[in-house]
């Protein structure tokens, strides 16, 4: 034994010396390195060769495994929300809402539930700066005793389209121009002018508060859609979810956001991470607005995610508090592999006829089967806590991990097996008339397109409005005249001053009346230099 220990020690020093390491600390002091099979690895620098000049031997199976693993370590990025950060936390019930929902997570004041949150940019890609103008994602996975409930929030209370059929168009318009791979503001403003229902969210995206938030911690979240609650008497209510930041809210101006992007592209991610490391745990109140089932069918905007429900008509009801208190330690397995879906609800929380929500019930699992593989729901971060899923589905597919006696693997059977439980049936869902491609009630009216954008402008203070006009103009002025005109027509209908102010800034910008930014001056100078070189 002593001889073996001496051999190991000599070999370690020999290898360390060859690798150019001078101390055992750099060589590694932790547990023995192994292959994925658990077999100890003896050498981690040089390939096994026949003689000093090779060739390399295939029997260096650790080398092969290392290269094959490396070749497969990237997976498709999320089609949207690709750049994001995560944190663990707890949800604690602070108010009894059992008269609205029978969900076990809400059953008792003081009850706590584990959760994982992912904060993201929607169109910001991996590697881009956190602070570029973009709405933000705020997705929460509650690991409840009845399974996972995912609440996918964003930092604007409304979305830009209201039918999933328009979803891919909306996303394409905000992404890169497929011809050049560049971002192209003409696409965005072309889309907005052709979808006046999107102006409401567009104003929010071009505001400092929502478009360039100063911190994920200083951002509210909204479920946007109308969901439903069902109570133990099988009574249904319509519900909208709100996450109210206890840190307050705040946004960068356009210039500040650009400066921060250059200084520290991961600014928002680090801010969240560092606050949690410093035990300065961020908190949000989880609140809801409630409508009775009948009221919902009367109001034309109940199921329209481009509209808010006024707080004066439907005041916020507190449900509980969320605290983020632990950082992930493995970005890929926790933050990249987490998979949220609005389809993941629990008994007592359900859906609504909202046509965008209905389409999203397909989108998420579908894209995650592609992004993460057929058994992504069994991955560490996506598994429920404290319960073992018992299903007829988990009998195969890539990466199957569910090891249990699965017979009978069909239903029903005299051999026993898993059984559905009718106690969890929801009350029946009302449907409405013959099948057709229906517009929204009021679609195309002034009230539909312009009323809520007008009200949004009215709640801003003078400085916020000025910044909004500038932020819009600095993007819109780069577009062809017909696109500028089409948008201005809408802006004038929302508010004459809004239209005229944006038109004036665009005209001044075109005529060079407005001074160039430092970056624009720099780029101009570079062009002169370049032309100088080539001429
Ligand atoms: C038709 C419109 C929409 C489309 C096509 C769409 C599509 C997608 C896709 C493909 C993903 C990536 C999912 C993944 O790979 O895991 C995603 C993520 C996300 N979506 Fe949507 N979405 C739409 C509307 C919405 C709305 C209305 C909301 C908010 C209420 C929302 C909130 C989110 C959030 C928060 C994430 C990020 C989840 C994460 O951090 O992993 N989306 N969406």
Structure description:
The chain is an alpha+beta fold and about 525 residues long. Among the domains are: about 1-30; about 30-75, Cytochrome C Oxidase, Chain J (Irregular); about 85-175 and about 215-385, Catalase HpII,  Chain A, domain 1 (Beta Barrel). The chain is about 35% helix and about 15% strand. The protein has helices at about 1-20, 25, 60-70, 165-175, 185-195, 200-205, 210, 255-265, 265-275, 295-300, 330-335, 355-370, 445-460, 460-475, 480-495, 495-510, 520-535; strands spanning about 85-95, 110-120, 135-145, 145-155, 220, 225-230, 235-245, 285-290, 315-325, 350. Strands 1, 2, 3, 4, 5, 6, 7, 8, 9 and 10 form a ten-stranded antiparallel β-sheet that branches. Strand 6 and strand 7 form a beta hairpin. Helix 4 packs antiparallel against helix 5 (about 185-195), helix 5 (about 185-195) crosses helix 15 (about 480-495) and helix 15 (about 480-495) packs antiparallel against helix 16 (about 495-510). It starts with a helix and ends with a helix.
3D shape:
globular
| Number of strand elements | 10
- Tell me the radius of gyration: 28 Å
- Looking at CATH, which topology of one domain would you report? Catalase HpII,  Chain A, domain 1
CATH class of one domain: Mainly Beta
The H-level CATH homologous superfamily of one domain, spelled out, is Catalase core domain
Structural class, please?
A: alpha+beta
Small-molecule binders: protoporphyrin IX containing FE
Q: Tell me about the largest β-sheet.
A: 10 strands, antiparallel
Instruction: Tell me, rounded to a whole number, the average pLDDT.
Output: 94
Give the percentage of residues in beta strands.
5-15%
Supply the CATH architecture of one domain. Answer: Beta Barrel
Spatial separation of the terminal alpha carbons: 78 Å
> Helix and strand succession?
HHHEEEEHHHHEEEHHEHEHEHHHHHH
> Low-confidence parts, pLDDT < 50 over ≥5 residues?
530-535
């Amino acid at each position: 034994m002593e001889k073996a220990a001496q051999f190991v020690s000599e070999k370690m020093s020999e290898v360390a010396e060859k690798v150019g390491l001078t101390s055992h600390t750099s060589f590694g002091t932790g547990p023995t390195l192994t292959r994925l099979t658990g077999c100890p690895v003896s050498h981690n620098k040089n390939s096994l060769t026949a003689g000093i000049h090779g060739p390399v031997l295939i029997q260096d199976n650790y080398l092969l495994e290392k290269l094959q693993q490396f070749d497969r370590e990237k997976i498709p990025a999320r089609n949207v929300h690709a750049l994001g950060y995560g944190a663990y936390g707890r949800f604690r019930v602070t108010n009894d809402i059992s008269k609205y929902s029978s969900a076990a997570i809400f059953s008792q004041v003081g009850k706590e539930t584990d959760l994982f949150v992912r904060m993201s940019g929607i169109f910001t890609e991996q590697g881009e700066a956190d602070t570029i103008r973009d709405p933000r994602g705020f997705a929460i996975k509650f690991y409840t005793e009845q399974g996972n409930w995912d609440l996918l929030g964003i930092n604007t209370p409304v979305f830009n389209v209201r039918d999933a059929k328009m979803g891919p168009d909306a996303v394409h318009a905000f992404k890169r121009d497929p011809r050049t791979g560049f971002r192209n503001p003409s696409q965005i403003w072309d889309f907005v002018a052709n979808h006046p229902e999107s102006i409401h969210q567009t104003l929010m995206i071009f505001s400092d508060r929502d478009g360039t938030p100063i911190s994920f911690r200083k951002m509210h979240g909204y479920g946007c859609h109308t969901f439903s609650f069902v109570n133990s008497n099988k009574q249904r209510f319509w519900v909208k979810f709100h996450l109210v930041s206890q840190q307050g809210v705040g946004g960068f101006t356009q210039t500040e956001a650009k400066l921060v992007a250059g200084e520290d592209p991961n600014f928002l991610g680090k801010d969240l991470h560092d606050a949690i490391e410093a035990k300065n745990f961020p908190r949000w109140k989880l609140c809801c607005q409630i409508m009775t089932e009948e009221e919902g069918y009367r109001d034309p905007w109940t199921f329209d995610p481009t509209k808010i429900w006024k707080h004066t008509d439907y005041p916020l009801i507190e449900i509980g508090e969320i605290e983020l208190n632990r950082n992930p330690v493995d970005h890929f397995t926790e933050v990249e592999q987490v998979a949220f879906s609005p389809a993941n609800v629990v008994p007592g929380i359900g859906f609504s006829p909202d046509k965008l929500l209905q389409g999203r019930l397909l989108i998420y699992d579908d894209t995650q089967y592609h992004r993460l593989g057929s058994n992504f729901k069994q991955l560490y971060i996506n598994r429920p806590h404290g319960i073992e899923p018992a299903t007829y589905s988990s009998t195969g597919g890539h990466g199957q991990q569910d090891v249990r006696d699965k017979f009978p693997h069909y239903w029903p059977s005299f051999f026993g097996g898993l059984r559905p439980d009718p106690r969890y049936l929801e009350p029946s869902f009302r449907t409405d008339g013959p099948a057709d491609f229906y517009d929204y009630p009021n679609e195309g009216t002034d009230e539909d397109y312009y009323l809520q954008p007008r009200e949004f402008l009215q709640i801003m203070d003078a400085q916020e409005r000025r910044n909004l006009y500038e932020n819009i103009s600095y993007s819109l002025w780069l577009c062809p005249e017909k696109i500028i005109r089409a948008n201005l027509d809408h802006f004038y209908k929302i508010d004459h001053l809004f239209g005229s102010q944006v038109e004036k800034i665009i005209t001044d910008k075109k005529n060079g009346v407005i001074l160039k930014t430092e970056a624009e001056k720099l780029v101009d100078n570079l062009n002169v230099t370049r032309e100088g070189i080539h001429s």
